[in-house]
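Incident review: delayed structure delivery

Summary: a single-chain prediction request sat in the queue longer than the usual turnaround. Root cause was a stuck worker, restarted by the on-call engineer. No data loss occurred. The affected request and its eventual output are reproduced below so the record is complete for anyone auditing the incident later.

Affected input:
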Amino acid sequence: MKLALRKIRLVVHLLHGMWIVATRFPHASESVRNELNRKWSLRFLQLAGMRLVVHNDAARLDTGVLVISNHISWIDIYVINAWRPTRFVSKAEVRQWPVVGWLAHQLGTVFIQREKRSEAKRIMHELAQRLESGQTMCVFPEGTTSDGLALLPFHANMFQAAVSASRPVQPLCLYYEDAHGKQSTAPAYIGDMSLGQSLDALLRGGPLTAHVYVGDALAPGAERRVLAAEAQASVGHALALLQGEPGRAAQGVRSAPQSAGEHEPERAPVDQAEANRPLAQSRRRAADCRAARREFATPVLRRTQARPSMHYTAAMPFDPDFSLWSYLSSVGDAALTLPIAAACAIWLWFSARHMAARWVLLLAAGMALVGATKILYAGCGVEISSIGFRMISGHTTLSTAVWTVAIALLFRCMGGKPRVGVIVGLLVGAVTAVARVFDDAHTVAEVMAGWVLGATVAVLFIRTFVRAQVPLIKPRIAAFGLLLIATLAYGHHAPIQDMIEAYSPGVCARLLPGVGPGR
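Output delivered after worker restart:
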């Protein structure tokens, strides 16, 4: 069930990406597009159960550079875009993938048909032109994916674009680590594995950490085979450091065996000054890398103000303003629903005061129950961990109760059936519940409790209201008022949760002195 939900979240996020590309990219500048791409990719990694750590980012070049990297999985593209948005060279088959292929095309991916030899010249010419114009391009010179444990031979053809354009080459090493600090092959997209099978393996293998080691840029003056050899040595050295094998890094990394019929590119002498540093220094750098992997445990990357010389890593939670689910979740925020509830109470007060009092009391009782669970968890640490229940979702409760009553009242005053309004309102509450889960704010158990509580409050009130056959006065003014309040209040956030977290420990200490976190 959890795996299916995570897949749904990824699919919805892909559709959200299509919406962003279709609606915002046409009028956005290059810098805005890159930032949207980076944030979207960071969110994708988070939904896939992966965080990002970047090493040696001080070596990064930002424009007119050919980035080369080892290739493990289809998710490599999102890892690199989360580090620094770039354009890729990809096999033509990707263009036919649903959603993903369209997104790749819109983001400037260059597609190549490997079986056509004439394609190589065209691609090299296009890459060189893009590099000369200042664009950053990324290629995977291994030509295929591997399990990431070792490097496959780098093909020199792709390096010709950097030579022709006189642009530098930036080596990049990708490395995936599991929750136990060991190298993970779960993301590997190899052999006859389908995309669906690869996704299953990736999600089941989490939580994972994606490491990006940025190598020092290589000068563009060398011949393409020399560049390929230097790039492979740089990526191999970084891979050995990330694997925690400094001795192998100092001696050079032996790549994986070539497949039959492949010809190893001619190797020119490579400057081994970096690789032949003293073993003690290599061990220290490897220890730094391992420390970076352990130091931070939040989902994704945070950029620090200054770039350290060795590496930096941190965690920037995904910007909530960028999430579609956050927009939907705001429908249940108290800053919106409580004014709507108050407007309904005023409307009812001028129609039938006992109905207004009943509505206020029912909603207050529901919110008191929600508040009690929040205080017990925030102040006393009370939870039901076996089902993942900490507190009733306030957003879901308010959204379900308030919107159901408001919409039912509007249907009634317009001559419609309140039952239809109840159904619409319950659906709004259900959407809010789903949004709270997908926005990582609540568990399924918590939003289910909130939806049931909100539905109970709304149904108890509407049933009594319909039986009493209360006539509603001034329906047009009331409808306009509700619309105006919703327009003005949407997007604001009530500080109720902050107040609960601030005062709950004191409340629990006074009322329940023997109960509390860690007791």
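Verification: Residues 389 and 445 are 6 Å apart (CA to CA).
Action items: add queue-age alerting; document worker restart procedure.
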